[in-house]
Structures are given as structure tokens and as C-alpha cells.
């Protein structure tokens, strides 16, 4: 009598995993939008803590659902009929899932936040490059690691992605060429970041952003206002800043504008009569942007800013 062998099914392909990730990002992103809006007033002057709380929210979602608590299935994985398991086919513990998620989620969430600094030191540039390399490696292996389709965080924590119809899969080693490719790409990522750092260091003497480490970039904008048939024109100096203090502390904002007056003639040259400060808060997978607008007047001895309005917006992304 011939024994019938059940065919071994391949590991979950990239497309279900890719769509599951998109669904999960949308779900977590919406949660970050809501929670960020609620928590923002309490952490308005603490953007780092604000971002840490958003990252913890993302970690909680992925760690809980990818562990035995959620049977290895986030909402996206449930819809795409895949799940996270260890090499024995068992669900992983919450601690195991937390370590697995942290490898990807922390770099993924913090890259945008770290890049918001106007003039980051070399140490921060290297951290950004390291995080970028991790995120790239995770996506690269998930797409091109055909043997097991384990991503980087799967490899490091000895987990796998299975279809719901699979009980287990034999462990397969990663093709060594992938390691060489990832090493090369990592070197390129670090080289590009260091090159940009060196270029910025060499050009800061001719850049208005060198006046203050808090200035990310400067723009000039003409704005037209119509009241009935009357038209008024405002020349607005727009400053994207890396510290939120300028949004609601007029004295701090005036000090920065005075430094601009002393070190450049941009205010007089463009006949600036309004100044707008922009600052963006990152909360996990959501971005909250706030702008404060001041009327600008210069006297013989002082700079005067008068608050005339502000607006806040939220969106998914970085």
C-alpha cells in the first residue's frame, strides 16, 4: 500500500505579508492620530517623550497581536490569513514578540523624528544611518529572501511567517549573497549620510540656518488677503524650526528674529511684515504639525512680534 505524502507548502509569500503590513500601518496610524491629538496638549513642550509614547503604542499593537495573546495575528494578518510562529510552529511569548517588534518598529518610527533636527551632530547622523539600514534590511529580506522569506527581525528572533493552513515549516538558511548585498547597501547608506553631513558642515557659513541650530530651513512667501474689494499683501518669513518654544513664547521668537536681523538683511530685503514658525511633532506613525503666525514690526532699537493666529494639522506618515 502506497503512503500518500502531504506536499510541503511554501512559506507565506511576500504579497500577503506586504498587504498585512499596510493594513496594520493604517490601523495603528489612525490610533496614533487620535491618541496624538488627545495627548498633544500635555506634551507640547516635550517632543521626544511625545514620540516615545507614540512608538510604545505601535509596539504594544504589534507585540500583543503577534504573540500568543493574539495567536500571532495582527488585524492585517487575520485578513491576509497569515501568522507569526516560532520554528516549532508554536505562538511566541509577549516578551519574544516585543523584542521582535522592537527591532523594526523603533528604527521605523524614529527615523523621521531624528531627521527633524536642523544641524544633527555626526553621532546622530550615524544613528540615523544605522536605523535606515535596519529598516532597509527588513524590507529587503521580506521581499528577496526566497528560501524562508524571513525578514531581519524574524532571523534575529528565530520566528517565521506561516499561512493559516500551515502547521510548521522546515528552517532554511538565508542565501549568503543576501548578506553581501545588505553589507554593500549598508555601506552606501552610511556613506551617503556622512557625505551629506560633511557637505552641510562645509556650507553652513553661507547658510542662514547657521544663525541658529533651531532653524531647519527658511522660506519667503507672498500672501494676498481680500476683504471685500480691498486687497492686502503680506511678505511672510516662514521658519521651520526644531524646537516648539517659538510657537507660544513670544520673547524666544523675538530673540531669534533679532539674530536674523543682526546677521543678515533678509527681513529688510524682502520687506517682511509677518513671521510664521512651523514645528512638527511625530507620534508613532502620525505627524502633527503646528504653525504660529506673528505680525512683525521693527523699531529703531527692538523687534516686536504680535501673535495673530495659529493652526494645527494631523496626518499619517513622517
UniProtKB/TrEMBL annotation:
Membrane topology of the entry: Multi-pass membrane protein
Q: Which residues cross the membrane?
A: 18-42, 48-69, 97-116, 122-143, 177-198
Question: What are the GO cellular component annotations?
Answer: plasma membrane
Q: Where is the RDD domain?
A: 12-157
Give its localization: Cell membrane
- Keywords carried by this UniProt record: Cell membrane, Membrane, Transmembrane, Transmembrane helix
UniProt protein name? RDD domain-containing protein
Please tell me the species this chain comes from. Acinetobacter bereziniae LMG 1003 = CIP 70.12
